[in-house]
Amino acid sequence: MRYSLIADAYKEIEATARRLEMTELLVKLLKQTPKDLIDKVVYMTQGKLCPDFFGIEIGIAEKLAVRAVAKATGYSEKTIKENVTTIGDLGETTEIFLQKKTQKTFFHEPLTVQMVYSSLDKMARATGPGSIELKTSILAGLLTNASPEEGKYVIRIVTGNLRLGIADMTVLDALAVAFGGGKDARKYLERAYNISSDLGKVAKTVVVQGMEAVGEFQISPGEPIRPMQAERLSSPVEILEKLGGKCIAEFKYDGERVQAHKNGDQITLFSRRLENITDQYPDSCELIENCVRVESAIVEAECVAVDPDTGEMKPFQELMHRRRKHGIAEAMEEIPVSLFMFDALYVDGEDLTLEPYPIRRRNLKKIIEQGCHVKMADYIVTDDPDELEWFFEKAVESGCEGLVCKSMNKDSVYQAGARGWLWIKYKRDYKSEMADTVDLVVVGAFHGRGKRARTYGALLLAAYDAGKDVFQTVTKCGTGFTDEDLKKIPKLMKEHKIPHRHSRVRSNIEADVWFEPKVVIEVIGAEITLSPIHVCAMGVIKRGSGLAIRFPRFTGNYRLDKSAEDATSTNEIAEMYKSRLKKAAG
Ligand code: ATP
């Protein structure tokens, strides 16, 4: 197949903004494509060589591409670069310079799709010393044989600028019309795509084996399933109404979505965008290997950074430090993760995606062994808006973004690749960021584990309510303590230890150790939130809710100069909440 067929089609596609016309042009191109090349043509049309999860990218730097154009056309790199600046696009510049090529070649071998594909593939796979020269010379070779128009598209594809605007769904429409007998075939092709994430494979199946084979497409561990997504509403009443009066409400953990595939002892992890992130999370792979007790499975989880000493969840930003290619072992130690499991899509040969959510969840629970770092997503089943609101506050206070409320109805299938109303996220509209530190009274403590086995893992802290002359808990703080602090605190608190909660301390939380309210420490948090658990300023902002400080950190200041009654008051915290209340973005 001549590459010029593709270049001509691209030119026409580029000239239209109408989806229907684009589909027709694509149908024409696909029909002209030999069966054995159909997958390659589909990938190339999307500016790729294979599906994203293969992890092979064509992309080369513009500087190298300029060098190759100079080599192929006989003009200097400087001239090419200057023209790119005025013309604004290297593709067009290449077209112009190929037109006025000074180094006339005697043998002009017409470009074929096979030649272009295999050259791009070689370029993409070239690594290590000498790879830059190799890439440049392969590209220059292609350009030498290319017509000006072909050269334009070759350059655009290698620099990642093809941008024809052809959506996945347009390709599916075109396949349906070209080979499926009409538009109605689209839903079967779409399903095949949603469970394989591989448009080329779908195209090849329909062309070589026909629609029947497309209908029999199977989930296969190792091939990512396009993720189901959630719609959004902002009130518990609306959410329950939309979900038929009752739902499974789960914590919406604030981490990275992971789709884990287990196939024997082979574990593969995919991100929300279906990149292969297996190498980034060796610890998660090990967790999946150990906790999934079947031979093969596809499960979904949110991967969250946790404090190694207290087990508490950390903000999303912390997890982003794990997004790196080098120093993975160090990052793993510094930022350990936990997996919160929320779906099972496939278990030992059985496709669960068309089962209702309660059944998928039951299967998930059955096949995983929960432990310290692997847990089922925290949930309730409810038909009561007040209970939903209570659970929402609990989620936010625990370090989550809010809730994902899920349909329990018979039709609550896993909608691969779709954002629908079977899952509804409930996030906060408002948040109150903390700008100032507060001084809080240590009223209790929790035993540590791991490195903190001999000391406290976290302290229970309270603010002072002058009106009632009591101390009301506002947060549990396990962050910001140095090794020295950890040694010092048990000694400092020893003389204040009491066998039960102090009569002037108000708390809904059972601490492992209680103290008389004497010692004050300085803390800063990320924000103040409504809380169903902490009793600080209970009922002041909202009936039935107190206030809590989220992601608190000890600043290092022991306020030994302050008495417990000098601590920040519950009123001050309520004022801080009100004054910093902001509409949250997104
Ligand atoms: P957002 O930016 O709000 O996270 P999003 O566009 O990334 O939204 P949505 O589909 O709208 O994704 O929201 C669902 C996301 O929430 C999932 O992609 C997943 O990463 C995360 N999540 C956390 N906990 C859960 C849970 N229990 N069930 C489903 N998704 C969860």
Word description of this protein:
With 586 residues, this protein is an alpha+beta fold. Among the domains are: 238-429, DNA ligase/mRNA capping enzyme (D-amino Acid Aminotransferase, Chain A, domain 1), CATH 3.30.470; 438-585, Nucleic acid-binding proteins (OB fold (Dihydrolipoamide Acetyltransferase, E2P)). Helices cover 37% and strands 22% of the residues. The protein contains 21 helices and 23 strands. Strands 13, 14, 15, 16, 17, 18, 19 and 22 form an eight-stranded mixed β-sheet that branches. Strands 3, 4, 5, 6, 7 and 8 form a six-stranded mixed β-sheet that branches. Strands 1-11-10-2-9 form a five-stranded mixed β-sheet, covered by helices on one side. α7 (113-125) runs antiparallel to α8 and α11 (186-196) crosses α12 (199-208). The longest helix has 15 residues, at 131-145. It is elongated and about 90 Å long. The two termini are 48 Å apart. The structure holds adenosine-5'-triphosphate (ATP). Adenosine-5'-triphosphate is lined by residues 229-230, 250-253, 257, 272, 302, 342, 377, 404, 425.
Question: Helix and strand layout, with pairings?
Answer:
Elements: H1 3-14, H2 19-32, H3 38-45, H4 62-73, H5 77-87, H6 90-99, H7 113-125, H8 131-145, H9 148-158, H10 168-179, H11 186-196, H12 199-208, H13 211-215, E1 229-232, H14 236-242, E2 247-252, E3 256-263, E4 266-270, H15 282-291, E5 296-305, H16 316-319, H17 328-334, E6 337-347, E7 350-351, H18 357-367, E8 374-376, E9 379-382, H19 385-397, E10 402-406, E11 419-427, E12 430-433, E13 438-447, E14 456-465, E15 470-477, H20 483-494, E16 497-498, E17 505-506, E18 513-515, E19 520-524, E20 527-531, E21 546-550, E22 553-558, H21 570-579, E23 581-583
Helix pairs in contact: 1-2, 2-10, 3-12, 4-5, 4-6, 4-8, 5-6, 6-9, 7-8, 10-12, 11-12
The chain binds adenosine-5'-triphosphate.
